[in-house]
Specification:
The chain has about 200 residues and is an all-alpha fold. It has 10 helices and no strands. Helix 5 runs antiparallel to helix 7, helix 5 packs parallel to helix 8 and helix 6 runs antiparallel to helix 8.
C-alpha cells in the first residue's frame, strides 16, 4: 500500500491528501460499475487500498463521501457564467450548460442515488442542498437580479420561486424516467414559458 501511495504522490504533496484523493477516485470508479446500493465503505476502502478508519476519519457516511467525490470534480462543475446584456439569453445559456452536465450518465446516476439517500437521512439532505441545489439556485438568482438591473425582468420577481420552478421541473425530468431529453430545445422551451411572467412591463 505504501508503494502505491508513493507512486501516486505528487512532489511536495502531503501523503494524507494523496490518500484522500485516492478514496474519492475509488468511490467514483465504483459508481461507474456498481449500483449505489451495492457500494460499501468496505468496498471503497479495498479499492483505494486504505483502512476503513481512514475513510471514516474524513466522511461520516458513504453518501457524504460520494457527494464530495462528485461535487469536487471538474467534470461535474460549471465554470462561472459571464453575463451579457440579455438576461433571457443568459438564462437559456445557464440551462443549456446545466442540462449538458446532467446528460452525462455518471452525473445523472449519482444525482439520482444521492437524492434517494437524502430522503432517508435528514442531516445528509441538508448537506446535499447546500452542496448542490443552493448553488444552482444562486446561479439563477444572479441572472434574474442582473435582468432586473437591466430593466428586462420585473423588479418584484420572486427569484427563489423561479429557481425552484426550474430545478423542480429538471429534477422531475431526471427522476421520472421520461424519454424527453435535457437539450438546448428544452432549455429554450423553459425560458419561453417563463418569459411572459418575468419580463418587465
Amino acid at each position: 500500500m505504501e508503494q502505491d501511495v508513493r507512486a501516486k504522490r505528487a512532489p511536495g504533496r502531503p501523503r494524507s491528501d494523496v490518500t484522500r484523493q485516492g478514496v474519492l477516485d475509488a468511490a467514483v470508479d465504483l459508481m461507474s460499475t456498481h449500483a449505489y446500493r451495492d457500494i460499501t465503505i468496505e468496498g471503497i476502502a479495498a479499492t483505494a487500498r486504505v483502512g476503513k478508519q481512514s475513510i471514516y476519519r474524513w466522511w461520516p457516511s458513504k453518501a457524504d463521501l460520494l457527494l464530495e467525490a462528485y461535487t469536487e470534480r471538474p467534470l461535474y462543475k460549471m465554470p462561472p457564467q459571464i453575463l451579457s446584456g440579455d438576461a433571457f439569453s443568459d438564462l437559456e445559456d445557464d440551462l443549456v450548460r446545466y442540462f449538458t452536465v446532467l446528460r452525462q450518465e455518471m452525473v445523472s446516476k449519482g444525482v439520482r442515488s444521492l437524492v434517494a439517500e437524502a430522503q432517508l437521512d435528514e442531516a445528509f439532505r441538508a448537506k446535499f442542498y447546500e452542496a448542490v441545489w443552493r448553488k444552482r439556485c444562486e446561479a439563477v438568482h444572479r441572472i434574474l437580479h442582473h435582468g432586473v438591473a437591466l430593466r428586462q425582468i420585473r423588479a418584484d420577481v420572486d427569484v427563489e420561486a423561479v429557481a425552484h420552478l426550474i430545478h423542480g421541473a429538471s429534477l422531475y425530468r431526471l427522476l421520472s424516467g421520461t424519454s424527453r431529453p435535457f437539450d438546448e430545445d428544452d432549455a429554450r422551451t423553459v425560458v419561453s414559458l417563463l418569459r411572459d411572467g418575468l419580463k418587465a412591463r
